[in-house]
Design brief:
There is one protein chain. With 72 residues, the protein is mainly alpha-helical. It has one domain. The protein contains three helices and no strands. The chain is flat.
Length: 72
């Protein structure tokens, strides 16, 4: 159990920077003058990233409230 906690803490504090973008998308976005498409792609990525966190947070909050009311 102690090894798992140490592994989780190390993985949270030490991470590698990665670039996860396909070569074609990167080439198109870097060659554009106004950078409006790049901003749109970045906004879309943030939107797609936020939705699962909101859903999991909402479900977690619902479960927390449910257990809290059961204890009373």
């Amino acid at each position: 159990m102690k090894h798992k906690v140490v592994l989780i803490l190390l993985s949270l504090f030490f991470f590698l920077e990665t670039n996860a973008q396909c070569a074609m998308c990167r080439a198109v976005l870097e060659s554009e003058e106004g950078q409006t498409a790049a901003e749109g792609i970045n906004d879309g990525i943030v939107y797609l990233m936020a939705i699962p966190y909101i859903l999991v947070g909402g479900i977690g909050f619902f479960i927390y409230k449910k257990y809290k009311t059961l204890k009373k």
